[in-house]
Amino acid sequence: MDNRRLILLLVFSFSLVMLWEGWQKHTNPKVEAPAATASQSAGVPTPTPSATSAAAVPGQPAATQAAAPAPKATIRTDLLIAEVSAQGGDIVRLELTQHKATEDKSRNYVLFDNGEKHTYSAQTGLIGNGLPNHKTLFALGAQNVELKDGQDAVTLRLDAPATADGVKVAKLITFHRGSYQAEVSYEIANGSGAPIAPHAYFQFTRDGQPAEQPGGFGVQTFTGPAFYTEADKYQKVSFDDIAAKKAKFVSKAADGWAAMVQHYFVAGWAPATGEREYFANQVSSNLYSAGVILPVPAVAPGQSATLSVPLYAGPQEQSRLEKFAKGFDLVVDYGWLTIIAAPLFWVLEWFHKLTGNWGWAIILVTIALKALFFPLSAASYKSMAKMKTLGPRLQRMKEQYGDDKMKMQQAMMDLYKREKVNPLGGCLPILIQIPVFIALYWVLLGVVEMRGAPWLGWIHDLSVKDPYYILPLIMGATSFIQTRLNPAPPDPIQAKVMMLMPIMFTFMFLWFPAGLVLYWVVNNTLSILQQWQINRMIDAGGKAAAN
Predict the structure, then answer these.
(1) Which helix (H) or strand (E) holds 345?
(2) Which residue did the predictor score with more confidence, 405 or 18?
(3) CA-CA distance, 118 to 111, in Å (whole number)?
(4) How many CB atoms are closer than 10 A to CB 310?
(5) 272 vs 430, higher pLDDT
(6) DSSP state letter for 154
(7) Over 465-493, what HEC string results?
């Protein structure tokens, strides 16, 4: 009975890991869906979200629409290479020089992509009569901008054609040394004879295809828009819900940010505190936009105004995310296990600072967890060791009572009571440890710090599977040894199932990230040593009592 429950418990725990993606889809807060608005602001209609995703923003003169491939400018810093199109001043391509492509390690990782693998760009524009938007053809201030030694920042300036009323607009994109954060700004000079009060939108436009995914039995991390406000906290929105017009997220707020999230990387707009409207739309069959709309302060005739919004586009390094905006580190999403996973990563990061290697940090975290759960593990192994000593007596009971299950069960319960053995003693401690294991699984699976991190020898990347399957085979061998140390079930069928479990686990772990398999190997090894010692102690005690 206890072994059957243990098997079911283990299978159930792995099912939780495999189906975790399904759980994540239900973690979004239920708030009202965004609605189009038509309120007035200084005589200028507040734009509806759908206005920003149209082929041309209403009021944009056809003469300013780009009809041919627009020229591009390249910006180089110590961390990235950005391509900015003259059409709209969109950032249409962004290479991260400190992160390599998944398939080809000789190439940089591409976040914003102009069609090589994805359609993904950062777009901005103004909404107002004749004002430039992401379809307007700007004049590039330079073709190549490079951060030179001694410089802390570089700026690309783009000038839009003056409107018929004499309004001049310039767009400025500033990147900083040692940072994935940029500022996208608009300078508006009102040369007309009347005040203007436009709105500005900042959005990401992306296809609905998921980004690179880790191995592990088809488990996929979230790819799609996300929003955050102080009141409603972190809200993920799936592309499917956007297409079905069922997306639920906050529509208006006085704070927060909008982001496009994918595995390991994120891009986000984080305006300063003030009125804003969030939106997410389907542009075409496989193209979506999400972002934020802001009011621009009224500009009197002959006066100028500036609006600037910070942009983050880079890896989900938690130290950088925390500095960018409040709550932005939540894009590293552990679901309801954040309360366990966040401290686990903190400890893992602390050990990494000591060792300089994520593999050794995983080993030290495993040892620390083993020490933390030592009393529970010891109770479990003592229970299993006592059960093992009762194995021959249980077998004799089975032969004695034959097919009379009622008498067999009663005799077993009497035996457990006399010997002070809890048949569930080996299961309950494991049940308590399952959330910790799942939380660690998502830490190792989701943190970008593990991406491309080597351990030793043949393990060059702890975030992907072992290329030669050595660690999974070692894990299978340690699991087999553990099974041999456990009490053999009296039922032959249960005994065969128990012997098959290491083979099943080995097969499952072939595709798991090497970092997780390393954790499991170390955990198994420590468990074997602990269980072997407890078995010796109980066997010695039994022999002493017999003598």
Answers:
(1) helix 338-355
(2) 405
(3) 9
(4) 18
(5) 272
(6) E
(7) CCCCCHHHHHHHHHHHHHHHHCCCCCCHH
The residue type found at 86 is A
Q: Is pLDDT of 54 > 60?
A: no
- Based on the number of CB atoms within 10 Å of its own CB, is 487 exposed (0-12), middle (13-18) or buried (19 or more)? buried
What does the pLDDT look like over 112-160, one tens digit per residue?
Answer: 999 999 999 999 999 999 999 999 999 998 889 999 999 999 999 999 9
Encoding tokens for residue 452? 């491309």
CA dihedral 270, 273, 275, 276 (to 10 degrees): 10
Residue pointed to by tokens 């400190």 = 98
Q: How many CA atoms lie within 13 A of 237 on its CB side?
A: 31
Closest CA to 129 of 39, 38, 48, 60: 60
Question: In this structure, which amino acid lies at residue 347?
Answer: V
User: What is the residue whose two structure tokens read 């340690």?
Assistant: 478
pTM of the model: 0.80
Residue type, 240: D
**CA 195, 196, 202: angle at the middle one, nearest 5?**
160
Run of H or E residues at 352 = helix 338-355
Q: Which residues share a beta bridge with 294? A: 200
Separation CA 425–CA 403 (nearest Å): 27
Residue 37 pLDDT exceeds 80:
no
- Closest by CA to 205, choosing from 307, 109, 117, 286, is 286
Beta bridge mates, 267: 260, 313
pLDDT higher than 80, residue 25: no
Q: Is residue 218 packed enough to be buried (19+ CB in 10 Å), middle (13-18) or exposed (0-12)?
A: exposed
- The one-letter code for the residue type at 340 is I
Residue 68's CB: how many other CB atoms inside 10 A? 7
Residue 421 makes CB contacts below 8 A (sequence gap 6+) with 383, 386, 387, 390, 415
496 vs 478, 484, 499, 523, CA distance in Å? 18, 12, 5, 24
- H or E element, residue 346: helix 338-355
- Check if the beta carbon of residue 152 is closer than 8 Å to that of residue 177: yes
Sign of CA pseudo-dihedral 145, 146, 150, 153: positive
- Bridge pairing between strands 80-85 and 91-100: antiparallel
What b-and-e string marks burial along 31-50, b requiring 16 or more CB atoms within 10 Å of the CB? beebeeeeeeeeebebbbbe
C-alpha to C-alpha distance for 415 and 406, rounded to whole angstroms: 14
DSSP 20-36: HHHHHTT-S---PPP--
Amino acid (one-letter) located at 499: M
User: Which residues on neighbouring strands pair with residue 164, listed in sequence order?
Assistant: none
- The CA distances from residue 427 to 162, 383, 432, 434, 524, in Å, are 74, 9, 9, 11, 16
Tell me which residue has tokens 């994935």: 180
